[in-house]
Structure formats: C-alpha cells, structure tokens
C-alpha cells in the first residue's frame, strides 16, 4: 500500500487547527504538541484504531498504524478504523505524496 491508496482507504480527517504540514491546501497532519496533540489524544481515548503515526526511521519517514511516541513526526486521524495488522507506508519528503 502506498500513501495515496492509504488516503483512499482510511479517509484522513482534516486538522481544524491548521498548525501542521498541509496536503492539497488542506491540513491533515496533527502535530505532537498543543491543541493538535490534545485532539489526537481525545480521538485515541475514544478509538485508538483511528490513529496513525508518522515515524522517522533510518530509511526515511513512514506511516504506521496506532499511536507511537518514539521518533514520531506527527499523526493522522482516520475516519476508517485499521484492523491492527502491522502497516508501514513509506512517505516521500517533504510532501508525503
């Protein structure tokens, strides 16, 4: 699965705070602090299967399912729950396309 198909399958939620990196003139990434993090944690308490984390690795940034702290760059909130199976989607920098 690539990032484009992930977007189609999981339907990212737009970030109403508009603080993080934007995609297609709409902000979808949630930062790791402040009101963005508060929103991620609110959704996480309701349903952690809607949270995805962008993690920095030696080979670049990847998107993985769930809420993670180590090496996190940001988060996405999805409208569709993931099934808990491990997913790792490489993200191209800087646009994550």
Quickly describe the structure.
By secondary structure, the chain is α+β, with helices and mostly antiparallel strands. The protein contains 2 helices and 6 strands, in the order H-E-E-H-E-E-E-E.
Structure characterization notes:
This protein is an alpha+beta fold. It has one domain (3-82). It contains two helices and six strands. The strands form two sheets. A four-stranded antiparallel beta sheet has the order 5-3-4-6. A two-stranded antiparallel ribbon has the order 1-2. The relative contact order is 0.25.
Question: What structural keywords apply?
Answer:
alpha+beta, four-stranded antiparallel sheet, 97 residues
Task: Describe the secondary structure blueprint for this structure.
Blueprint: H1 3-10, E1 22-23, E2 26-27, H2 34-46, E3 51-57, E4 60-65, E5 72-77, E6 88-90
Antiparallel strand pairs: 1-2, 3-4, 3-5, 4-6
Strand order of the largest sheet: 5-3-4-6
Structural class call reads: alpha+beta
Question: SSE string, helix = H, strand = E?
Answer: HEEHEEEE
Uncertain spans, ≥5 residues at pLDDT below 50?
none
Roughly how many Å apart are the termini?
13 Å
Secondary structure: number of strands: 6
Principal-axes geometry comes out as: globular
Total number of domains: 1
- So how many helices? 2
Mean pLDDT: 87
Strand count, sense and barrel status of the largest sheet are: 4 strands, antiparallel
Percentage of β-strand residues: 25-35%
State the helical fraction. Answer: 10-25%
C-alpha-based Rg, rounded: 12 Å
